[in-house]
Write a structure and sequence with these properties.
mainly beta, Thrombin, subunit H, 6-stranded antiparallel beta barrel
Length: about 400
C-alpha cells in the first residue's frame, strides 16, 4: 500500500499535477499530501508514522480555506474626520487582532530559522525578470478554487509581514507587502508605523498559512530597518508608503521572485489588474484567509472614484489625495481588513505574463460595496523615492 507524504517527497509524482484543495477529493488527510509508493519516498523516515502524528495535523485549517480569527478595525483608524469615521477601514489588523500563522522551531527571539529544505537542488532558481506571474501555479495547479484562492507561487513577490508579540511569544500576521529587491520589501506606512524593526520578520514564498506541507518552503528574514515616507500623514493617510530593509537577502526560488516597480508617473487604466492577500473576505466576517486569495480588479479613474466616495459617509466635501489610485467597486470583490500593504499589480503593455506594481492596499469604506472602489497608494508616484532610499541603503 502507498503512504501519504508531501507532494515534493514523492519521486514519481509528476510536476504540474492538478491538486484539489477540497479535503473530500483527496486520498490523504491533507490536500498537499499524495499517496506514494514507499519505494519512491525521498525521506523514508517519514510516511506512515507522520500520517498519524498529531503535530502534522492542519491545526485549524477549514475546508473553505479560512481560519477563525477575530479582528475588528479600531474606530480611530480613520483617514479624516467624518460624520461616522468607524465606516472607514484601514486595511491592516492591529497586532492584538492579527492572524496567528504556522510556525516551525523558533530561536530565543521567536524567529523561525531558515528551512533545511531551502537549498534543495530540485528547486534551485535565480532572480529572473521581475513581475512574472505564474498564472497556472508552480509545480501544481489548483483545480477547484471556490474562495478566490491564488495558485501556489502565482504572485512570487508576495510577502507577509509578521510582528513578534512578547506577551504570547509568537509571531502575528500584521500586513502584506511585496519583494522589490532580494533584501527589501515595499509595504504601507500605516502597517509599520511605530513598530520596531527588530520586532518584525518578513515571510516570502508563503501560500497556505495553516500548513507547512507546501511543495516549496517559505523563507523568513529579519527586518533591519523601517523607512517610512517623510511626509506620511497618519490622519489623511497621504504618502502611505514604507520600505523594509532586511538583515539578509532572500534566496531566489520559483515561489520567491521580485515585483516590478513602474516607471515614475505611469498611469494605469487597465481592467485586468490583480490584488492578493490573506485579509478578510468581507468587512463583517471574523475570518482571515488561510490560503492566499486573489482578486481581479478594474482600475477606476480619480474623478469616478472621488464621486463614488463622496456618495458614502465621507460626504460631498471629500477630496481624494493625489497619492492614491482606486480599483474595484464590484459587490463582494474587494481587498479588506488584513490586506493592507499588499500589492496591486497591472499587466505591462504587450505582455500577458509580466506585471507592474500599480498600487499598495491602503484603505476603503467597509469592503466590497457595490459601486465603491478600494483605495490604493499610487506606486508610480514613489518609484524615484523608493529607488533613492534603496541606493542610500546599499
Amino acid at each position: 500500500d502507498g503512504v501519504c507524504v508531501p507532494l515534493a517527497e514523492c519521486k514519481n509524482y509528476h510536476v504540474n499535477e492538478l491538486i484539489s484543495i477540497r479535503l473530500q477529493d483527496s486520498d490523504c488527510e491533507h490536500y498537499l499530501n499524495v499517496c506514494c509508493d514507499p519505494e519512491n519516498v525521498e525521506n523514508p523516515d517519514k510516511g506512515k508514522d507522520d500520517q498519524n502524528n498529531p503535530e502534522n495535523e492542519d491545526n485549524g485549517s477549514k475546508e473553505n480555506g479560512e481560519v477563525d480569527v477575530v479582528a475588528s478595525p479600531k474606530p480611530d483608524d480613520d483617514i479624516q474626520p467624518t460624520p461616522d469615521p468607524d465606516t472607514v477601514v484601514v486595511v491592516s489588523p492591529e497586532p492584538d487582532d492579527a492572524n496567528q500563522v504556522k510556525h516551525g522551531d523558533e530561536d530565543d527571539a521567536g524567529v523561525t530559522p531558515k528551512s533545511d529544505h531551502e537549498d534543495r537542488p530540485r528547486f534551485e532558481a535565480e532572480f529572473g525578470e521581475c513581475g512574472i506571474r505564474n498564472k497556472d501555479g508552480v509545480i501544481f495547479s489548483v483545480t477547484d478554487a471556490q474562495h478566490q484562492e491564488a495558485q501556489f507561487g502565482e504572485f512570487p513577490w508576495m510577502v507577509a509581514v509578521l510582528q513578534y508579540d512578547a506577551d504570547t511569544s509568537d509571531h502575528q500576521y500584521s500586513c502584506g507587502g511585496s519583494l522589490i529587491a532580494p533584501n527589501a520589501v515595499l509595504t504601507a506606512a500605516h502597517c509599520v508605523l511605530d513598530k520596531d524593526a527588530d520586532s518584525m520578520i518578513v515571510r516570502a514564498g508563503e501560500w497556505d498559512t495553516m500548513t507547512t506541507n507546501e511543495v516549496l518552503p517559505h523563507q523568513e528574514r529579519k527586518v533591519s530597518k523601517v523607512i517610512t515616507h517623510e511626509h506620511f500623514n497618519q490622519k489623511a493617510m497621504a504618502n502611505d508608503v514604507a520600505v523594509l530593509l532586511l538583515e539578509e537577502p532572500f534566496t531566489a526560488a520559483e515561489n520567491v521572485q521580485l515585483a516590478c516597480l513602474p516607471p515614475q508617473g505611469t498611469v494605469f487604466e487597465n481592467n485586468d489588474c490583480f490584488a492578493a492577500g490573506w485579509g478578510k473576505a468581507n468587512f463583517h466576517t471574523q475570518s482571515y484567509q488561510a490560503i492566499l486569495k486573489k482578486l481581479e480588479l478594474p482600475m477606476v479613474s480619480k474623478a469616478e472614484c472621488q464621486a463614488a466616495l463622496q456618495g458614502t459617509r465621507l460626504g460631498p466635501r471629500f477630496r481624494l489625495h493625489p497619492s492614491f489610485v482606486c480599483a474595484g467597486g464590484q459587490q463582494g470583490v474587494d481587498t479588506c481588513t488584513g490586506d493592507g500593504g499588499s500589492p496591486l499589480v497591472c499587466p505591462v503593455a504587450g505582455r500577458d505574463d509580466k506585471y507592474y506594481q500599480a498600487g499598495i492596499v491602503a484603505w476603503g469604506i467597509e469592503c466590497g460595496q457595490e459601486g465603491v472602489p478600494g483605495v490604493y497608494v499610487k506606486t508610480s508616484l514613489y518609484t524615484d523615492w523608493i529607488n533613492e532610499k534603496l541606493a542610500q541603503a546599499y
